[in-house]
Design brief:
single chain, alpha/beta, TIM Barrel, Immunoglobulin-like, 10-stranded mixed β-sheet, globular, binds alpha-L-arabinofuranose
């Protein structure tokens, strides 16, 4: 019998709600058509933002949105995206598909989108092809109340009060598309750029330095040593691919059992990355003042046949739901260091929570995982030990169950995924020194390859009743194969 043991006396602290953050880049159909259709569109919108998508994002309580990239960020010049739309500069998006970017979605539109969703903005500024002055003036434009020419420009563009944007990324993937820098060089550049990103009024900036590519531990070492004292966050990017090499991504749908387990097992690499980068950070920052910011994560598969290879459009199956559950459980359990994570990307790109086609919208299995996990936001993490068997095929095996737990408002939330594609898991949940009074549940369950398509919903969150509160105060749960479940537990007083 599998066992999940919760200990409410043992906690790593509060699960920062920003772990449930998202990422939206000027890439493919994420911004244009996905989030923004323009004021004149036939598709229902408010000031150009798609009403259906905004409503769906509100439902999962998106706390934070990162923009404008990604690689695009280091070619983006914010001045091109403000003022009258017909006068905005047109550019070619050289990173993503070579399409024309007309800058109709710029700074004001992004902040309006965040306001509509009810989330915090996180702006990733340009180091690769930008200037210190450009970045400094972007911060000033958004956050200052002073009577300067830069601020007057904001007034002219319709906004009197400061936006008070707190989260700022200083370059993106500066080791790659953001300038191909060496860590020693970037550390100095980071120190210089962040110096001129000023705090205005009571707003305190949260400055995020570009962190490593996956397991580049030397990058973290150098950054923490040379610039750790100047940053509030250090980013980490890691994508899961199905094959053994980065180039071997494979299809998002129609995969076989071995490819299913390859992918979910590969995604557990995040545990090692967070742990080992965290150990390096611990040496330079034992107080854990600097947060780890996993601001790009998720599955990266081949694009859907017939779509622009530069648009990174992929379908999303129950396999993606498993990977989302695995990663979010890892972040919850490391909430003493991980303060933010941003799945890549919100709409129509990579492991998207939403897909759109014209006026239609699909909520992917990954979307439903974010729905099941939303109670963890700003809750107190609860120690969660799992004792279970293995699932997988030869060479690609892992624990059958992955789980995390938290408590808020007198209730405990346990989220658990049964990774097995075909075996249910009988499991006892016990809460140390406590007896369970009552439980409610919700579940997402399907076959490993199930996905939702336009006009065809196959998997969605349903009420879950496959459990029983035993006389001893424990809970017996029958977790079906390939499922993600949320159990909300009330304890006896
Ligand atoms: O999310 C797609 C791309 O992946 C981002 O632009 C870049 O930062 C990363 O390499």
């Amino acid at each position: 019998m599998n066992k999940i043991i919760l200990d409410t006396k043992n906690s790593k602290g509060i699960i920062n709600k920003n772990i449930y953050g998202h990422f939206s880049e000027h890439l493919g159909r994420c911004i244009y058509q996905g989030l923004y259709v323009g004021e004149d569109s036939q598709i229902p919108n408010k000031n150009g933002m798609r009403t259906d998508v905004v409503e769906a994002l509100k439902k999962i309580q998106v706390p934070l949105l990162r923009w404008p990239g990604g690689c695009f960020a280091d070619e983006y010049h914010w001045q091109d995206g403000i003022g009258p739309k017909e006068e905005r500069k047109r550019m070619v998006n050289t990173n993503w598909g070579g399409v024309v970017e007309d800058n109709s979605f710029g700074t004001h539109e992004f902040l309006e989108l965040c306001e509509q969703i009810g989330c915090e903005p996180y702006i990733n500024a340009n180091v690769g092809s930008g200037t210190v002055r450009e970045m400094a003036e972007w911060v000033e434009y958004l956050n200052s109340e002073g009577d300067s020419s830069v601020v007057k420009q904001r007034w002219k563009n319709g906004r009197k009060e400061a936006f008070n944007v707190k989260y700022w990324g200083v370059g993106n993937e500066s080791w790659g598309c953001g300038g191909n820098m060496r860590p020693e060089y970037y550390a100095d550049e980071y120190r210089r750029y962040q110096t001129y990103c000023r705090n205005y009024g009571p707003n305190r900036l949260f400055r995020i330095a570009c962190g490593p590519n996956g397991d580049d531990y030397n990058w973290t070492e150098v950054l923490m040593k040379q610039a750790g004292g100047y940053m509030d966050g250090l980013s980490l990017h890691h994508y899961t691919v199905c094959g053994d090499k980065w180039e071997d991504k494979r299809a998002a749908t129609g995969f076989n059992l071995e490819e299913y387990y390859r992918t979910v097992v590969h995604s557990t690499k995040m545990e090692e990355l967070v742990t080992r980068h965290g150990q390096i950070m611990d040496r330079y920052d034992p107080e854990k003042r600097v947060g780890m910011v996993v601001d790009e994560w998720g599955n990266w598969f081949d694009v859907e046949p017939g779509t622009n290879p530069g648009f990174l459009y992929q379908q999303n199956t129950m396999r993606d739901a498993m990977v989302a559950a695995i990663n979010l459980n890892i972040f919850n359990k490391h909430c003493d260091r991980v303060v933010m994570a941003n799945i890549a990307q919100t709409v129509n790109v990579l492991q998207a929570v939403i897909l759109t086609e014209g006026d239609q919208m699909v909520l992917t299995p990954t979307y439903h995982v974010f729905d099941l996990y939303k109670a963890h936001q700003n809750a107190r993490e609860v120690d969660c030990q799992v004792q279970c068997g293995k699932a997988g095929v030869e060479g690609f095996e892992m624990d059958q169950l992955t789980a995390s737990a938290s408590e808020k408002d007198g209730k405990i939330t346990l989220t658990v995924a049964n990774i097995s594609a075909d075996q249910s898991a009988e499991t006892v949940v016990c809460i140390r020194e406590n007896e369970v009074e009552s439980v409610t549940g919700r579940i997402l369950q399907g076959n490993m390859g199930d996905y939702n398509d336009f006009g065809k919903t196959v998997v969605e969150v349903k009420e879950f009743t496959g459990f029983e509160v035993m006389e001893c105060g424990r809970v017996k749960v029958e977790l079906p194969a390939c499922c993600v479940a949320e159990l909300t537990v009330c304890l006896k007083k």
